[in-house]
Amino acid sequence: MNAPGSLAAYTPSMAISRYAAEYQTIAPALPGQNLPWLQALRAEALAQFSAQGFPSPREEEWRYTNVSGIKKKLFLPSLDLAGSDVDAEWLKSYKLEDAWILVLVNGHFSAEFSVLDGLPEAVTVMGMADALAKQPGTVEKYLGKAADQAEHSFIAFNTAWFTDGLFVHVPAKLVLDKPIQLLHIVTGSDAMATTRNIIIADDMAEAKLIETYVGKDSAYLTAAVTEVFVGLNADVTLYKLQSESEKAYHFGGSYIKQARDARFTHHNFAFGGLLARSDIHVDLDHASECELNGLYLGVKRQHIDNHTRINHLKPYAVSRELYKGVLDDRARGVFQGRVIVAEDAQKTDSQMNNRNLLLSDDAEADTKPQLEIYADDVKCAHGVTVGQLDEKSIFYLQSRCVDEETARNMLTFAFANEMVDKVKIKGLHDRVLEQVLVRFPQQGVNKEWL
Amino acid sequence: MLSIKNLTVNVNDKQILKGINLEIKPGEIHAIMGPNGSGKSTLSHVLSGKGGYTVTGGSATYQGKDLLEMAPEIRAREGVFLAFQYPVEIPGVSNIYLLKAALNSIRKHHGQPEVDAMDFLTLVKEKVRLLEMDEKFLYRAVNEGFSGGEKKRNEILQMAILEPKLCIMDETDSGLDIDALKIVSEGVNSLRSPERSFVMVTHYQRLLDYIKPDFVHVLANGQIVKSGGAELALELEDKGYSWLEEEAA
Ligand SMILES: Nc1ncnc2c1ncn2[C@@H]1O[C@H](COP(=O)(O)OP(=O)(O)OP(=O)(O)O)[C@@H](O)[C@H]1O
Ligand SMILES: [Mg+2]
Q: Domain total for chain B?
């Protein structure tokens, strides 16, 4: 379509108008053409994006992350599965055993690669395009209700452009005994995969879900938005394993609404991408609980940004957050964590921690925890650290026969492994572990001994 | 086994060790006593290779080799073991993992194959029983959340499993109650052999009731100011160190 070279002289505003122009050609192929509410929503989102462009570092919540690399390129979506070049063996290495799997290839549901048999009849797991065709009423009830597209233009961008996604609905009281994996893959150079996911767990339901983002070794853009609705006293665990290609751009936002007494746990493993940004925003109702865990590993020139926001809207809610980062070479990690306690949210119990380990002099960690407390009877704690490996610990290990390089790797691994150990799904745990070990390959840690 | 000659050491340009001479033969037990800040830990650290110390003169020869030239892990693999005065907590690394890594490094250093997993477990469990520890400690992170006494016992557990040739124990008895002291001493005594030597830094003569030293040295102000037999420790307990420091001055 467009030779990337010809875009070299592009200015950001030209890029935006180019996207807007492309949109006119692509729009008729997007799902939900017959749904006026969706058409209106998309039009509004496109207008917002056209006016604002991509987020700029001038915005407070983007001040450490410059997405101008994305602006210089023009990523274009695939209209269907045609031309996608999937290596089934490669794909298999990311599929979990003992899970229902929905595969999105270049932003489109692939029935061929998905594994959805044996689902309980009452549970809905389907592609978003299918859901818009078969259950438009339900989708309308939820789409855009947890993610606010006025928030920033990536959400608007996603709303305007999304081609497909995952739609999950677990009815009340149903406990899913196997996890659902969303396997999101991008196979093309300069491709764009814009997907919208909705996960609904009705009252008392329990479900575990895994988002896996991978791609062929090329520059592409993933812009995914996931909205999660956790019903009364329901329990949802969402894992995100972001292993995009090292040339890729990734934006992934997860927006969660928890009803009274609901529990939500998020595990965010941010390993891939040239530039990757995650948003995790949670709204907590009365006595609900959320736990946000994160591990980001940056090497070379990777830039990995995690932005969390926990809204304590009602009393007695509990939030626990621990994000850890390991940054080597010239990598940069960003953590912005906001906890907002509304006036009404008395007895809030909140803890936020961010710890960063810098392995090289050129690595950088920017950490910004923010507490905004409008209630007076609350327990809120937060802490951040940015540091290097402890020399005393290295000597202790050396005095126990371990050479210095291995000692450094052992300590780095141990730092990261605290987050890996929180993964309770065996198959996923092993895969995450594998990826962490790949980052510390210098015969540092012997997997057999763990 | 170990021959220290006129060893002088600086920390941050300040001389801490001011000419140490010490001869340790295989099978001997040497106790080193002395006031706080006299340089006992400094000597232990320099022998095991900790950074931050500058050797300004003298030598330390271990089994005919220049000890001070070796990297810390090489010294450890060659059989030098330091039981720390303040053992370090290593979150995220389990005791058993570290033991396996250490033992296999020693074996590799000597051209031996990795230890068989079953043999290893048998060995470790035997030593855990010897030190009357709970097996659960094996699977906990190294020293993390251990009490002071548990940390010291854990050091001796490692020593018992790694079977070093030169065991340097820096105040292993400090902070141990009498029951723990007896258990630790039994552990140490079970390791005594004609080929293995011990350097025990201590403030308390009581340890020497359980582990009988061949020699007692007094380190004061960076020098060994007096050496004698086990009876010297009793005298020190009686009279303190001031008379020796005066003598040296
Ligand atoms: N890193 C350092 N920087 C500056 N001075 C140091 C350092 N380490 C040790 N020293 C000093 O060296 C001297 C000897 O310390 P060392 O720890 O060896 O004493 P010690 O005999 O083991 O004492 P204790 O009985 O209290 O354990 C002390 O004066 C101490 O303050
Ligand atoms: Mg000391």
A: 1
Contact assignment for B92 to A414 by CB distance below 8 Å: yes
Set of chain A residues whose Cβ sits within 8 Å of the Cβ of B105: 401-403
> Of B15, B16, B85, B203, which is best to mutate to test ligand 1, by the most ligand atoms within 8 angstroms of its C-beta?
B16
Choose the residue to mutate in B40, B48, B169, B173 for probing ligand 1, maximizing ligand atoms within 8 Å of C-beta: B40
Q: Report d(CA A265, CA A430) in Å as an integer.
A: 19
3-state secondary structure of A89: helix
Among all bound ligands, the one having the nearest atom to the CA of B42 is 1
Overall residue count recorded for chain A in this entry: 450
| pLDDT at residue A289 in the model | 98
* CATH code of the domain covering residue B85: 3.40.50.300
Q: Which of A258, A285, A312 is the last residue of a domain?
A: A285
Q: Kindly give the number of the ligand 1 atom that is closest to the alpha carbon of B219.
A: 21
In a domain? residue A171? yes
Residue A169 included in any domain: yes
Average pLDDT over residues A240-252: 96
Residue A91, in any domain of the structure:
yes
State whether B72 and A395 contact (CB < 8 Å): yes
Chain B interface test: which of A355, A390, A400, A448 (most B C-beta within 10 Å) = A400
Distances (CA, A) of B122 to B115, B143, B154: 11, 22, 17
For residues A241 and A212, is the Cβ–Cβ distance under 8 A?
A: yes
A45-77 tens-digit pLDDT: 999 998 888 888 888 888 888 888 887 888 888
B40 lines ligand 1 (CB under 6 A): yes
The amino acid at A371: L
Calculate what percentage of chain A has a pLDDT beyond 70. 94
Q: Give me the pLDDT at residue A5, please.
A: 38
Asked if residues A174 and A203 have their Cβ atoms less than 8 Å apart, the reply is no
Taking the CA of residue B225 and the nearest CA in chain A, the distance in Å comes to 29
**Mean pLDDT on A320-336:** 97
Q: How far is the CA of B40 from the centre of ligand 1 (A)?
A: 8
The verdict on residue A266 lying in a domain is yes
Ligand 1 neighbourhood includes B16 CB (under 6 angstroms): yes
Of A246, A266, A285, the residue that ends a domain is A285
Q: pLDDT tens digits, residue range A359-384? A: 999 999 999 999 999 999 999 999 99
| Sheet strands (E) in A359-416 | 364-373, 379-387
pTM: 0.90
Which ligand lies nearest to the CA atom of residue B51 in the structure? Answer: 1
Structural domain boundaries enclosing A276? 12-285
- Structural domains counted in chain A: 2
Q: Is A92 exposed, middle or buried (0-12, 13-18, 19+ CB in 10 A)?
A: exposed
Q: Which domain holds residue B21?
A: 2-248
For residue A1, pLDDT beyond 50: no
CB atoms within 10 A of CB A138: 16
Give residue-wise pLDDT tens across range A432-448.
999 998 876 555 667 66
- What per-residue confidence (pLDDT) applies to A4? 41
Q: pLDDT tens for residues A257-271?
A: 999 999 999 999 999
Chain segment B213-222, per-residue pLDDT in tens: 999 999 999 9
Evaluate: CB of B222 within 6 angstroms of ligand 1: no
Nearest CA in chain B to A392: B88
Is there a contact between A365 and A336 (Cβ–Cβ < 8 Å)? no
Cβ(B70) – ligand 1 distance below 6 Å: no
